[in-house]
Design goal:
Layout: H1 13-39, E1 42-48, E2 51-52, E3 61-63, E4 68-75, E5 81-90, E6 96-105, E7 110-117, E8 127-131, E9 137-142, H2 143-146, E10 152-154, E11 159-164, E12 179-181, E13 192-198, E14 218-222, H3 226-231, H4 235-245, E15 249-253, H5 258-262, E16 273-280, H6 284-290, E17 304-310, E18 318-323, E19 326-334, E20 337-342, H7 357-364, H8 374-380, H9 396-404, H10 415-441, H11 447-470, E21 475-485, E22 490-501, E23 505-513, E24 524-525, E25 536-541, E26 566-569, E27 576-582, E28 586-597, E29 602-609, E30 613-620, E31 626-633, E32 636-643, E33 648-650, E34 655-658, H12 659-664, H13 684-692, H14 717-720, E35 726-731, E36 736-741, E37 748-758
Parallel strand pairs: 3-10, 6-26, 11-13, 11-14, 12-13, 14-15, 15-20, 21-37, 24-36
Antiparallel strand pairs: 1-4, 2-13, 4-7, 5-6, 5-8, 8-9, 16-17, 18-19, 19-20, 21-22, 22-28, 23-27, 23-36, 25-28, 26-27, 29-30, 30-33, 31-32, 31-35, 32-34, 35-37
Length: 766
């Protein structure tokens, strides 16, 4: 072949060189990554939550929407290591939320640590990442790497009881009317889903933070489990005590280990003082307590040893069962929670062989079978599904979510209109475009012009319509519930708020409690401030428990526009959220809880008369009115009206009625009926009042319209049963301040605050 004079060039050299450089770069990166991860620590083992012991029990059980402990074991590498461990779980929108923990390890060391996560769906989608101070990833793992079997998800409405030792009969509650085995998937309206889980004391799997017990309705401590009492002697015992103070219910079976219980950290919060043992010929008093038809001590049963429980009145306790002047069951308050003490051994005879011991635990744990009436809910909400946002609504928290998404000036477009608009759009770009080109222009190639023109026109119309309907203002709907125990001098707060963002924006969010007597605080803004050191804040996302799109009861993973994830700050303390992405014209629900010292806000002098009547005065010490005020005592309520600053009212002169009837008359303001419009306003104050006294609100048949599973910590009906009077009222003052960083302006906040005050009570008339 003759030469053309042009030098020959192999045109394959470029691609070959590119492939070679790519392979070389990948090998270098892989070697560097291998060196980093090989020299550093490795994730050896991960355990999630608790070990369920109910039917179909399983390890790694957790409740959706509750904080859950995560136990992690790390193996040190060839070098010492300092860095950060991120544990991420998907929130209710499917966005990873990471809690960070500082790590310091010597070479070859095995480190066991506890951190926490809050999954927002039945698939927690856990991810672990270990990074060094330079931000380099040294180890990572996804859920499938360390949990070979999927974790067991409990739904938000299921009742979880945590136990230590062998308290006989707790597991039999699922066989009683009104209850059924939980952790099995779907919700059955015929009974409360009930799950028990044993705390792994031998494996040292006890939470060291109060919110590690967040999923539990109650905790049962069998004192014959000496290892558990020893494990509760340090920070883990204080975590349990802190959980009770914030609203938990602790049940302690003292029995023969009265001395060990008395000297343990939980001994200081008991409503009595264990002091020795005595023999009693019969425990028939427990038959009456449990409503048993099968006696615990039949005739000819030997005498039974019980713990002697003393100083009940001095510690503010109430005797629920007594025999031979010896209390058998005593209950009292600690902060906003309760402690129940049982004087017998619950892992030994005669209790362990008692046929009705499950009925005893229902009373001891103050459990209630499911009392919601599904047919009544369906009729009230328009047939149980005619409205997209109310389908499957069963819980008060679902109505709270709807209420917090009602923004003045923001028009919610019904789903039917959106579906119709999508249909028109498809018709325009499909058959509409075809017939226009075929019949009018008779030039099919014009589709290169008409198709993008239609898309652009529809996009502009949608944008300006959305702008007209939604505006460009940053909005917050916010509710605060402030509880103050004036006897103990402590307070707790719960804040729920929904943020409406007019643009795609990443926000840093925190909530700061504000004293009620410090003047009107700004409801929201960008200026940061810290609460007092004694006040601890817990901030996270908020959602509804229903089995519907956009709720945390859903079992499917969701596609999200919420960015790559956000983090809890500071390390190890979920007090602040960083980099929370909220897409344009969309919302994000959040919640905060806090606990700390509190000053008195009401002056009172109250004396009981009979079983549920009061005599005395109440004075408002705040500089804002107490509006729509009530005073609840037992099953009764006094309607006090509005108490202006400094005013005093005599309680016995106020209108009084049954508390259940009072609450029932308010239902229509927060559960609109089938004839109400889609945007019918929900009274957030009445809704919160229903949650705060939910178990007091029952019909003649003992059935409630909606459950209160997610917000059950708000319900202090159990405290009313301990003869603790409570004043509740609305106030025009925020109990907390939302601090936002990232918004272009301070948000406009719609605020509702409900105050509840636990008041002292004279035991003798003056």
């Amino acid at each position: 072949m003759a030469s053309s004079g042009v030098p020959y060039r192999d045109h394959r050299r470029g691609p070959r060189l590119l492939v070679g450089l790519s392979a070389f770069s990948w090998l270098v990166f892989a070697n560097l990554a291998g060196a980093w991860e090989g020299d550093g620590p490795a994730i050896a083992r991960v355990r999630l939550g608790f070990d369920a012991t109910s039917k179909g029990g399983a390890s790694n059980s957790f409740k959706v929407g509750s904080w859950v402990p995560v136990w992690i074991e790390l193996k040190g590498g060839r070098e010492s290591f300092q860095g950060v461990l991120d544990v991420a779980a998907a929130d209710d929108d499917g966005v990873p939320a990471s809690l960070r923990t500082g790590i310091s390890m010597a070479a070859g060391e095995t480190l066991r640590l506890i951190t926490y996560a809050r999954p927002g769906a039945r698939d927690p989608d856990l991810r672990l990442v270990l990074t060094d101070p330079q931000g380099r990833r040294r180890a990572s793992a996804v859920q499938a790497n360390f949990l070979h079997d999927p974790p067991r998800a409990l739904k938000p409405g299921e009742t979880l009881i945590l136990t230590t030792g062998r308290p006989a009969g707790v597991e039999t509650i699922i066989d009683l009317p009104g209850f059924r085995a939980g952790g099995l998937g779907s919700i059955d309206a015929g009974g409360s889903e009930f799950v028990t889980a044993a705390l792994d004391v031998a494996g040292e799997r006890l939470p060291d933070r109060w919110y590690g017990y967040d999923a539990a309705w109650g905790v049962v401590v069998d004192a014959n489990d000496r290892q558990a009492l020893e494990a509760l002697s340090g920070p883990r015992g204080q975590a349990l005590v802190d959980w009770v103070a914030r609203g938990g219910h602790l049940v302690v079976a003292v029995g023969s280990q009265w001395q060990a219980v008395k000297s343990s950290p939980i001994g200081s919060i008991l409503p009595c003082v264990p002091n020795g043992q005595e023999s009693v010929p019969s425990l028939e008093a427990l038959d009456a307590f449990a409503g048993s038809t099968k006696p615990i001590t039949p005739p000819e049963t030997p005498a039974v040893r019980v713990a002697r429980l003393e100083n009940v009145a001095e510690r503010g306790g109430s005797i629920l069962s007594i025999t031979s002047n010896l209390p058998l069951v005593v209950r009292g308050s600690h902060g906003f929670g309760r402690v129940t003490v049982i004087a017998i051994d619950v892992d030994q005879q005669p209790f362990s062989t008692w046929a009705d011991r499950g009925m005893f635990w229902i009373r001891a744990l103050d459990l209630r079978g499911r009392r919601v009436d599904p047919s009544a809910v369906g009729a009230k909400l328009g047939g149980g599904g005619t409205r997209f946002y109310q389908a499957n609504t069963k819980d008060l928290s679902s109505q709270l979510k709807v209420a917090l998404e009602q923004f003045p000036g923001v028009t919610l477009v019904p789903f039917g209109w959106i579906a119709f608009a999508i249909f028109l759009y498809i018709a325009l770009i499909g058959p509409g475009d075809y017939f226009l080109l075929r019949k009018v222009f008779k030039r099919m190639e014009f589709t290169w012009i008409t198709f993008p023109a239609v898309v652009a026109a529809v996009g502009l119309v949608a944008y300006f319509a959305a702008y007209r309907l939604n505006g460009d203002e940053l909005l917050i709907n916010k509710v605060d519930v402030i509880d103050i125990d004036q006897i103990a001098g402590v307070g707790r707060g719960c804040t729920w708020f929904t943020l409406f963002s007019p643009r795609n924006q990443d926000y840093a969010i925190e909530v700061t409690p504000t004293p009620l007597d410090a003047g009107q605080p700004v409801a929201a803004g960008s200026a940061r401030s810290k609460p007092s050191p004694e006040t601890k804040v817990l901030l996270s996302w908020a959602s509804a428990p229903d089995d519907r799109f956009g709720s945390m009861g859903s079992s499917s993973r969701r596609f999200s526009f919420g960015g790559g994830g956000y983090s809890y700050e500071p390390a190890g303390e979920p007090e602040r959220l960083e980099n929370v992405r909220i897409p344009i014209w969309s919302t994000k629900g959040l919640q905060a809880r806090w606990f700390g010292p509190a000053k008195p806000v009401v002056e009172s002098d109250l004396t009981p008369i009979g079983t549920d009547r009061l005599l005395g005065v109440v004075q408002n010490r705040l500089d804002v009115p107490l509006e729509d005020a009530i005073l609840a005592f037992g099953k009764h309520v006094y309607e006090l009206g509005t108490l202006v600053p400094g005013s005093t009212i005599r309680v016995e002169l106020a209108k009084d009625r049954n508390l259940s009837g009072y609450l029932h008359t308010r239902q229509g303001s927060y559960v609109p009926d089938a004839t109400s419009s889609l945007a019918a306003p929900i009274d957030r104050g009445d809704l919160l009042m229903a949650a705060m006294f939910h178990d007091s609100e029952t019909t003649s048949s003992g059935v409630s319209l909606l459950t209160n599973d997610v917000l059950h910590d708000l319900d202090l009906t159990g405290q009313l049963a301990l003869s603790r009077p409570m004043l509740a009222a609305r106030i025009k003052r925020a109990g907390s301040r939302v601090v936002l960083e990232g918004g272009s302006s301070d948000p406009r906040t719609n605020q509702v605050t409900v105050l509840r005050v636990v008041l002292p009570l004279r035991r003798t008339q003056p």
